Amino acid sequence: MFLANVSLFDFRNYAELDLGLERSATVFFGGNAQGKTNLLEAVALTALTRSPRTQQAAELVRFGQQAARVTCGVQTDAGRDALEVRIMVNPSASGAARASRRFTVNGIHRRATDMMGALRVVLFWPDDLQLIKGSGDGRRRFLNTLLSQVDAGHAGELNRYAHLLEQRNALLRAIREGRQSTDGLDYWTTALADSGATIMVERQRRLLELQPIAAAYHRELSDDRERLELRYRPAGARIGEAPPDLVSQQLKAAMSDARDEEIARGQTVVGPQRDDVEVWLEDHEARLFASQGQQRSAVLSLKLAELQYLADVTGEQPVLLLDDVMSELDPARRERLLAALQPGPQALITAADLNDLPRSILERAAVFRVERGTIHA
Ligand code: ATP
Ligand code: MG
What we know:
The chain is of the alpha/beta class.
């Protein structure tokens, strides 16, 4: 699988773009605010159905316009597929309802979750350097993205869970305000716990598989000195090897214990939306104790593990999207990242300055200059 072309129409600062891509590496360089990240964002949007930069799809539509379109031509052994995302703005609505998304593959309508897996990407950008020190949000997003790309069914379950969580939280608020009795709560608690347990068991299983891959990269990056460990911290359940129905029971019990708090806050306080993944280096939690360099190595190890895991499990290399990260890495870590590109995956690489990129990449990459939403050879 590789990305053969990208077309944009009124996406961010691109009025119209039609771009063919190399099977190996393509470099996009140019000054600040020219559209380098926007281009990678368009590819990530198509692969993941959501922008990694914003929850508000309306922001993706070019200023002053009502609709945007991204089309990615994906070449597989079986032929070429056109994956298309359309964003339509509804000027009279606000918040998430301000924009709707529509997906098609070869002109045939698809649900968002059925898009997953048609194009797989690993995005690595400066925000990821917060993966270790930042809040659990980033680490949950990392997990959700990885698992959804491995298995579209997981994306469906996450969607289902989010919907159930919204319903249950609305009910908790209605109970708090005296608009509803607690009668209906058990129904939503059971539904939510069952879905949450499915997600948690899958997270545990996949993390156990990802762990040795990430640890091997980190060992190498730390000159054989450091042991990296990923520890799953499910919110409200003890996982271990438990089957889903046992985990579901644990979640239900935790919600029942927290009932007064949940009603007072109008919010469900246990479940996968509160999970975390702790990264440990040599028996110390990296979030609290890792140095800058250790964090960078740990993040790079996680990203390289994501890349390898996707390739191993699906049998296909994902497309690597490297946004401005080469300048953030020191020579040794840069070399490690480069080694993964050879012979490896197709890569789209951005840089403000070509001098930030090693010669070995520039020699074999197609190089384009990005300037105010246009791309020049
Ligand atoms: P940097 O090197 O600073 O990261 P970049 O080339 O990656 O720059 P982008 O993030 O791609 O820059 O953004 C380019 C420009 O796109 C910005 O000036 C931004 O204001 C503009 N932009 C963002 N959203 C829209 C939109 N909806 N319509 C028009 N322009 C937009
Ligand atoms: Mg950028």
